[in-house]
Amino acid sequence: MQLINNSRDDNISELLKTDLNKGFRLVVEKYSSRLYWHIRRLVIIHEDADDALQNTFINAWRSIENFRSESSLYTWLYTIATNEAFALINKRKKNAAVSFDDLDDFFTNSQEASTWFDGDEAQVKLQNAILQLPDKQRIVFNLKYFDEMTYAEMSKVLKTSEGALKASYHHAVKKIKNLISKD
Amino acid sequence: MMEKPKEITDKNPFKVPGNYFEEVNRKIISETSGYNQEVKKIGLYNRLKPYFLIAASITGFIILSYTAIHLLTPEKTNSQLSEVLFDEYNDIYINDIDILTLEESAASVMLLEESPDISKTDIIDYLLLENIDINDIYEQL
Fold it and tell me: Does B27 touch chain A (CB under 8 A)?
């Protein structure tokens, strides 16, 4: 699956050089869903994820010239999306009177958030446990557990060594298991 | 790797409105296409021209102001300065230095006193995520 993704990314990269609009259209169609879910798992609320997703692609478009020297479209886009999600989370922390450590905090502050969440008890427990992690560790966990990203790719996205990421993920899993078993 | 519990694996608890991805894709593509056309029309020189003009205006204003002040202000020699004024200025200068030194000393103490409690877990998380090797720390000790 990864090989197919990489070869198509090569084709898209070539097309971006010859026909920018057509190439970027393919980028959007291929990655919008994947990037959306990555962002959504971090910011929780659909409206926020929607804003961050659009900003991601607009920023990608604006710096498309920079991409041409990058090695991987996939990791480049994930880097931009992660930065957008991070910026939104930090902005929310500055503006909010409450901390967002629990799904209920999100649902209390936004009725819309509860509309677009349909998890059972097990999923609520897992999401709440993930929300207890420090932000960067949460990103590491999500990328590994949900996106099944390799440590090599994650290293490029988060600019962190593979060793540190492996340790961070192991640490995160331990914490989440403890939190889930406590409830 | 943490195994995904079967009841969680296949179901995504987050939902989106109907046709969301078709609509957002269309919106993104229309926004970025329009931006591209504007960028193509404006060259580098034209984009930087306003900044050059502002910089030139500011530089001209500074030169004119300096020249005007220099021409219009009568020269004062050292002999016209009273010794009293000089002494007063000197005292103020010394007092300012003392105050600065005191503030800096106080700030460093206050920082130490106000440091929040940091748990071992927080330290470990920081080290892992900031890519700091524990061996580097041992070498510094």
Answer: yes
